[in-house]
Amino acid sequence: MLTKKNMRHKLYLLLSLFFLSNTLFAQDTLKDLTLEHLMPGGNSYIFPENRYGLSWWGDQCVQKEMDNLKLINTKNGKEKVLLTRTEVNQILSQQGVSELTTFYQAQLPWANQNRFYFEQGDEYVLVDWEAKTASILHKTAPEAENNDFNPISKNLAYTVGNNLWVNDRQITDNPEGIVAGQTVHRSEFGIRKGTFWSSKGDLLAFYLKDETMVSQYPLVDITSRVASLENVRYPMAGMESHKVKVGIYNPANQKTVYLNTGDPTNRFFTNISWSPDDKSIYLIEVNRDQNQSKLCRYNSASGELEMVLYEESHPYYVEPQTPIVFLPWNSNQFVLQSQRDGFNHLYLMNAQGEIIKQLTSGHWLVQELVGFNPSRKEIILTATKQSPLQSNILALSVNSGKLREIDNLEGVHSPLLSGSGTYLIDSYSSPNLPRVVDIVNIDKETRINLLKAEDPYKEYKQPHIQVGTIKAADGQTDLYYRLVTPSKLDKDKKYPVIVYVYGGPHAQMINGGWNYGVRGWDIYMANKGYIVFTLDNRGSANRGLEFENCTFRELGIKEGEDQVEGIKFLSTLDYVDTDRIGVHGWSFGGHMTTALMLRYPQIFKVGVSGGAVMNWALYEIMYGERYMDTPQTNPEGYKKTDLTNYANLLEGRLLLIHDDHDTTCVPQHTLSFLKACINARTYPDLFIYPNHAHNVQGRDRVHLYEKITRYFEDFL
Amino acid sequence: MLTKKNMRHKLYLLLSLFFLSNTLFAQDTLKDLTLEHLMPGGNSYIFPENRYGLSWWGDQCVQKEMDNLKLINTKNGKEKVLLTRTEVNQILSQQGVSELTTFYQAQLPWANQNRFYFEQGDEYVLVDWEAKTASILHKTAPEAENNDFNPISKNLAYTVGNNLWVNDRQITDNPEGIVAGQTVHRSEFGIRKGTFWSSKGDLLAFYLKDETMVSQYPLVDITSRVASLENVRYPMAGMESHKVKVGIYNPANQKTVYLNTGDPTNRFFTNISWSPDDKSIYLIEVNRDQNQSKLCRYNSASGELEMVLYEESHPYYVEPQTPIVFLPWNSNQFVLQSQRDGFNHLYLMNAQGEIIKQLTSGHWLVQELVGFNPSRKEIILTATKQSPLQSNILALSVNSGKLREIDNLEGVHSPLLSGSGTYLIDSYSSPNLPRVVDIVNIDKETRINLLKAEDPYKEYKQPHIQVGTIKAADGQTDLYYRLVTPSKLDKDKKYPVIVYVYGGPHAQMINGGWNYGVRGWDIYMANKGYIVFTLDNRGSANRGLEFENCTFRELGIKEGEDQVEGIKFLSTLDYVDTDRIGVHGWSFGGHMTTALMLRYPQIFKVGVSGGAVMNWALYEIMYGERYMDTPQTNPEGYKKTDLTNYANLLEGRLLLIHDDHDTTCVPQHTLSFLKACINARTYPDLFIYPNHAHNVQGRDRVHLYEKITRYFEDFL
């Protein structure tokens, strides 16, 4: 189990610091925060200041602005104009190339070379500001998508519709239903794209997905003159899935070789990476049951399998999410990430498939392999070593295994490493710090500050935000909660509670970033006199494999039991009105919301369930079957977690919200639950957001949260 | 205008009688009516007793029952068993034909012949109980629909999919999108079917509809494993419409001739009828603008146009809804129905196209031409002559034009005429009579009673139901209202009001039938302490053309002004709480509900709008363009009545309900209004009934009205 003593100790230490108070200002002189302030997309959205356009040009730190490209001295932070837009546009106009509209578009992948490129419209333009020349590198079709430019070879891959293009040439010519160069397997297994340039940029690996056998889910666009159909091929749990191949295209001879992976039926081809010499390509192959993975090397010229380097299996599931990465100083060695010891850690392997050693270990996990510092032979990474709520930067010596702490041991850090790995831009926040941007010299362990953002809410009334732990329903596991309360609590009053819940894998609602990751709506509701409570139950992210996989084959059950522990904790607080407990969540949190309303009607009075999974049989194969197996192999689990079977148990007020273009969790979930309620003569409420996908973003998000607010005001 | 003195006089006289009181029983000993009692589809639905299975076998009155076929003596009502099911099944089993399961299926079109036929499964069976023989007349495909059996020729027409079959032969072989033998023009213009046997049953006229050019509206069925698409070709206002032809199929030579009507683009072919000699077929052709109609005769052998007998036009619209009918005693003369003098009346014409005379006239209208009594040369019809709320039976002498009153001058009558026209089964109700069934001898003007149903609610608490008139917003026109109030009104209390509204053409909410046509839900809500008010505004049915067409090109505006007059009337009643006025309606009534909420937010606090037309541009051509012209020719009218343009004016609580299989008023109406509200940051509520069409019927209707009830309870 996770509750190791040392971790606990650190945790409690941390929590004692985490008690936030925002009552520095006299509350009555403060302004009210509205949803327009608090929601991204709101008319007057307020957010912490940031340094946009900071990036690296080799080891030089550059600041992109609209009109200037500046150099930032990494020793003292002083700025100097490197280039003006006027200068660039003079060059461009002489060459008859369209103007650069902002330096934010400029990309500087070439260290120590006075040139940059930018993408504008359908053109890729290269500017050499020393030679004062400019040229058009590529001109794509206007409808090009998934552009993937390789700065080494200057090759460009992109897709037009379902086909792949490289430079000006169409590479595939497939009918609808066969898709090249795009993400596959519904972007699970860490897959985010469909093209992968080789180390030298001379060869292009790409996905080819045949989904003609996958059932079409019909979505309807009601904004056209006559409502129109938008089909999406959505492979549901237990049904036939798409089939994937990996092609390798060689722009030099315009030939494509497909990897000889054998029958692709019921297999997932994940985490593509290249050997440093481009001769081999690595894949992690996963079976349909997702309980076995294999790291495979193929010959990039012949497409033949060269070797299975590593295999991993687990009685529940494996989940490779990161490609292997070769050491820049040793082309025979690479780093593999694995949860095989219960936490995501790094392993050093060689190209012969031998595990040289486990590089990191302990009851914490590596979150991101940021990059390398070859001169010190260090890996720069982020990890939860300080706290499961934090993301801190560490430098790991590959040889000694020693970890150097690079940051302040607080908060959530997003590092951006320089070309040599000597510097990083460390952008972070912590409970009391909305945003800090530093430049760190990793070698010298020094840092200079570029930005320390003020509290953007400082003139506004703010609630009290507190983080702590309680025990899970197993009586052992520590769970983090966040309690948001009105700034002035009247001791004679009891306050209604809204539980905001997510609860599923891959996500954590509470973190050590600014205000502990509180949401704008939590602040809004607390200011209105509600207590907003969130608990990261078992099954959520950043706590290791066992913490996550204890929910296997019956998603939502243990998670719900933990949420009830949260309610028990709340009931010990004398200012909580336990007769007025509401719950709200989206997606997995929508499932949790509905499940809590149905399984614990004596506790939860009002719920708002958005984009909810109601029946895992209607969810997609890749995510769903990992945790639930198939409806055929786990009929009891599917039955037990199919909320339509409990529609008759609805007692409280439950608002169901779904987006009509939700391709992640299709509208059928909510509508079939609704139908089950109609059959059972129970009475949920419903709302639909037309032309939104999985959650309501943009301007309409204010409407969404006003709608949700009103529902709790009406009924809680 | 309509408010002629004599009509008014009768009206007031009538209304003084119409004041109903249901307080005979001590209210406290009475049981409560639930929605399960009051809704068709409810688990314990209560309705007045009726005599099902009464029909004519020539001039013999027969009562069909499960096990017996009985004769009813038309002089004294005495019953006699004519035939038992045992006897019939003995005959059938001897012939190896499947058993008759109930006499309700038996059809007796052959007067004085001891035989009947019945349809069971895919078989048409003829039974001769005198000869004790039985035979299978037809065996259709199991998926046969739209069956049309002609008892004279014994020919059978039916459709399989989109194609037409006659007897065992497939007549058309068209791809999807071309439909034979089914109703066309979305069943407007009185069209209810697509096959029309000739007078002798030897020739079959049928519609052929090419709708390949009509845009598909996508509906989604969420009850399949993966939600599936159900397209419907829905021709929206101003867009391209389907094209219709009329074919004539001759089973004797298996040839089909199509009428040479010319280019069918933007034309409606309505009201098909045959000449008595089968040599000619009559159509009423209407132009797309629906302001001109032509009665045309075609040669049934050649398909060529013989003559245009009659033309009618109107600056607003014409609306032929009934085929011409030949006099049984004169094959050269027929009866035409027309609103040309402002009310639907009968005209006697000859086959040369001459109007011999207007048969009926006055400020009332003919509702149905029921049939003929050839021996007396009378037409039997129903009409509003007594009152616009009633439907009374009249016998019209074709020669003298004299009208004989056949019924009791009260209520709403549904007559069924015997073979010779001498008798009729008069089934009727009136405000205090739930159901009466009499047999009437038209010649002798005598009647015997078969049924006088008890009040099925007599053991239950019932509200007070009252009907009266107020002036329309024009200050002149009388409008009928119905006021349903709790049985005991507390004089010191003020009661909330719910306006139930329809308001569109072709319908009348208040009539002189049982309880003045009150709805079950009205009773339910009045028993709960609400006042339920309904007003048939200008534009509604049974009041003549000008009353209806004053709403031309801006549907909903005048109708709403009249509803406000209703509210003004209510505000004169000291027991009405004018701060708590709700409104509910479906379809056109959904439009009215939404429009009233938006146009009169100071009056209407809560609305429930079901299956609403929100924007006439999304409604179909045939109904919509009749009243609104096209979006191209009436842009101001469409803009003014498009409720999405007023979404920002929503102040009260408005629940929008739509069925996801609504093919009459597609879901796009409600969803696009919802989107307009989201854009405008206003906050309606929503509910959807999956797998229901235009209104929720069957068991789920109880859920619907419980949902609606709760909404008013929550917010009014």
Describe this structure as you would to a colleague.
The structure is a homodimer of 716-residue chains. The first copy, chain A, contains eleven helices and 43 strands. By secondary structure, chain A is α+β, with helices and mostly antiparallel strands. Chain A folds into three domains: 5-47 and 456-715, Rossmann fold (3-Layer(aba) Sandwich), CATH 3.40.50; 51-139, no CATH class; 171-321, Methanol Dehydrogenase, Chain A (8 Propeller). Chain A has an eight-stranded mixed β-sheet with strand order 36-37-39-38-40-41-42-43, with helices on both faces. Residues 1-25 of chain A have low confidence and may be disordered. Chain A binds chain B through residues 215-218, 220, 222-223, 225-229, 231, 234, 236, 239, 618, 660, 666-668, 671-672, 674-675, 678, 681, 683, 685-691, 700, 702-703, 706-707, 710, 714, and chain B through 215-218, 220, 222-223, 225-229, 231, 234, 236, 239, 618, 660, 666-668, 671-672, 674-675, 678, 681, 683, 685-691, 700, 702-703, 706-707, 710, 714.
Strand arrangement across the biggest beta sheet of chain A: 36-37-39-38-40-41-42-43
Shape of chain A: globular
CATH topology assignment of the largest domain in chain A: Rossmann fold
* DSSP helical segment count of chain A: 11
- Protein structure class of chain A: alpha+beta
Q: Summarize the largest interface: chains and residue counts.
A: A-B, 42 and 42 residues
Largest sheet of chain A: 8 strands, mixed
Distance between the termini of chain A: 38 Å
Rg of chain A, alpha carbons: 26 Å
Query: Could you list the spans of chain A in which at least 5 consecutive residues all have pLDDT below 50?
Result: 1-25
Number of domains of chain A: 3
Q: How many E strands of chain A?
A: 43
User: What is the helix fraction of residues of chain A, given as a range?
Assistant: 10-25%
According to CATH, the homologous superfamily of the largest domain in chain A is Alpha/Beta hydrolase fold, catalytic domain
Q: Proportion of β residues of chain A?
A: 35-45%
Q: How would you state the average pLDDT of chain A, rounded?
A: 95
Task: Note the quaternary state here.
Answer: homodimer
Q: Quickly name the level 1 CATH class of the largest domain in chain A.
A: Alpha Beta
